[in-house]
């Protein structure tokens, strides 16, 4: 897909540049919950209890966020085993905080007393705010939203934690679309300090007001997005993972890609991130992308992810993904490189012996920048700083570099656009539009 990059990555961030980035992000936090995209009217806030549907990793993390704020939580799941697992995760997280000195034993006891695990929909009837956090499947989420719409009281706001599905579709399924918003927490929900709030076509001012206040109440940053595949965060992730997979086909290894991105300052490289998220989840998102966008993609688009998933390599949860795992320790796996080489050969991609770290970082970071420009053009994102906040506080972009768009501006927009054009030329063409630079 390409040859050596001419893009030069600054290896260090000066103290002055880091301070400027910190000041920028501080202002971005203040701007995120204000502006014309949010309701100007203040409503009486009622948040005496909340409901969480789905007791998996995400649902239990959301529950912990509210317990930390002293708010009673009804945690619902249809499976007794899943429900017990969710309660155990909540208890272990609180005990971990106790061991670290953040909570006392009486604190843990009081917080667990606020948790009401149940398998009965009727137990959600009194909740003021209810979120679904079930598996990322459209039919499943439609059914859950329909049940929430019938069960929850008229004043309740209904939220979906979907990362890629159409909020308007789910809102219609609820039977009360005016009460529905998207509220995308990130894993782990009780640690990641950002919530992407998605405004649906029918979302009322009250629902949006409630979404913002709920985020603030649990000490999260609310950033608003419009409806569109993947919203802001997931859609940009898709662009970066596209380049990570193409880099593998070009000759890079997972550990080289991750090392380069982590040296740039990312908390975790893209291959390790995929293994953490799960290749099954990644392929589900890919399927939803194809349904939503019907994209014109290169035939090898995301083939490493798809083939590894088809082999049963799901990531950390199965012990094998882009890496093989001993516990949580990722180890290189020759099988992955054989698979990648076979895919490259079948698609006529000539693999290179050496790929510079600067090319890896340039292609991955600039793919984020270009997708961010598209999001601004389309009106899905409201402002540059919102995008940078999502990435700096939600997806591990180095805060010392301020976020993808702040970083691009610091390098010079004209230089960024020239490098995107050069990547397109080195790829042979840009028939798929991956490197067609969008207006900044």
What report would you give on this structure?
The chain is an alpha/beta fold and 440 residues long. The protein has two domains: 15-27 and 233-426, N-(1-d-carboxylethyl)-l-norvaline Dehydrogenase, domain 2 (Orthogonal Bundle), CATH 1.10.1040.50; 35-226, NAD(P)-binding Rossmann-like Domain (Rossmann fold, 3-Layer(aba) Sandwich), CATH 3.40.50. The chain has 17 helices and ten strands. Strands 3-2-1-4-5-6-7-8 form an eight-stranded mixed β-sheet, with helices on both faces. A two-stranded antiparallel sheet has the order 9-10. Helix 6 links the parallel strand 5 (157-160) and strand 6 (180-184). Helix 1 packs across helix 15 (384-394) and helix 10 (270-277) packs across helix 11. The radius of gyration is 22 Å and the shape is globular. The model has no long low-confidence stretch (mean pLDDT 94).
Do you know the CATH topology of the largest domain?
A: N-(1-d-carboxylethyl)-l-norvaline Dehydrogenase, domain 2
Instruction: Tell me the structural class.
Output: alpha/beta
> Quick one: overall form?
globular
Q: Residue ranges: pLDDT <50 for 5 or more in a row?
A: none
For the secondary structure, the number of strands is 10
Q: What gap, in angstroms, lies between the N and C termini?
A: 25 Å
Percentage beta strand: 5-15%
- Give the rounded overall mean pLDDT: 94
As a whole number of angstroms, the C-alpha radius of gyration is 22 Å
How many helix segments?
Answer: 17
- In the CATH hierarchy, the architecture of the largest domain is Orthogonal Bundle
Major β-sheet annotation: 8 strands, mixed
The helix content is 40-55%
CATH class label of the largest domain: Mainly Alpha
Q: Could you give the order of strands across the largest sheet? A: 3-2-1-4-5-6-7-8
Order of helices and strands: HEHEHHEEHEHEEHEHHHHHEEHHHHH
Our count of domains comes out at: 2
């Amino acid at each position: 897909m390409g040859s050596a990059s001419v893009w030069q990555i600054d290896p260090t961030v000066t103290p002055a540049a880091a301070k400027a980035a910190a000041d920028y992000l501080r202002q971005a936090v203040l701007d995120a919950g204000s502006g014309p995209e949010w309701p100007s009217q203040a409503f009486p806030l009622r948040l005496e209890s909340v409901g969480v549907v789905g007791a998996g990793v995400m649902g239990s993390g959301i529950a912990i966020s509210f317990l930390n704020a002293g708010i009673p939580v009804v945690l619902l799941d249809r499976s007794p085993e899943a429900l017990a697992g969710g309660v155990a995760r909540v208890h272990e997280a609180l005990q971990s905080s106790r061991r670290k000195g953040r909570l006392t034993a009486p604190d843990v006891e009081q917080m667990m007393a606020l948790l009401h695990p149940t398998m009965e929909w009727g137990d959600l009837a009194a909740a003021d705010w209810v979120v679904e956090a079930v598996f990322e499947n459209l039919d499943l989420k439609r059914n859950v939203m329909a049940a929430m719409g019938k069960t929850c009281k008229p004043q309740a706001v209904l939220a979906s934690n979907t990362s890629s599905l159409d909020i308007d579709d789910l809102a219609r399924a609820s039977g009360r679309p005016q009460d529905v918003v998207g509220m995308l927490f990130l894993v782990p929900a009780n640690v990641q300090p950002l919530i992407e709030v998605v405004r649906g076509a029918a979302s009322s001012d009250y629902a949006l007001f409630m979404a913002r206040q709920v985020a603030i109440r649990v000490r999260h940053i609310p950033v608003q997005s419009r409806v569109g595949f993947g919203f802001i965060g997931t859609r940009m992730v898709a662009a970066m993972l596209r380049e990570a997979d193409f880099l593998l086909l070009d000759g890079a290894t997972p550990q080289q890609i991750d090392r380069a991105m982590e040296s740039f300052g990312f908390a975790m490289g893209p291959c390790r991130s995929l293994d953490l998220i799960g290749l099954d989840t990644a392929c589900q998102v890919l399927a939803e992308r194809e349904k939503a966008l019907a994209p014109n993609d290169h035939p090898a688009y995301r083939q490493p992810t798809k083939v590894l998933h088809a082999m049963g390599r799901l990531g950390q949860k199965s012990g094998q993904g882009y890496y093989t795992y001993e516990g949580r320790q990722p180890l290189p796996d020759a099988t992955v490189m054989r698979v990648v080489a076979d895919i490259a050969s079948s698609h006529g991609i000539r693999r290179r012996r050496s790929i510079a770290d600067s090319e890896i970082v340039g292609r991955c970071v600039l793919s984020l920048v270009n997708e961010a420009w598209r999001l601004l053009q389309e009106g899905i994102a409201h402002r540059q700083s919102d995008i940078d906040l999502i990435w700096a506080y939600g997806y591990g972009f180095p805060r010392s570099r301020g976020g993808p768009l702040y970083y691009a501006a610091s390098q010079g927009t004209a230089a960024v656009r020239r490098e995107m054009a050069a990547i397109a030329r080195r790829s042979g063409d840009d028939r798929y539009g991956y490197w067609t630079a969008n207006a900044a």
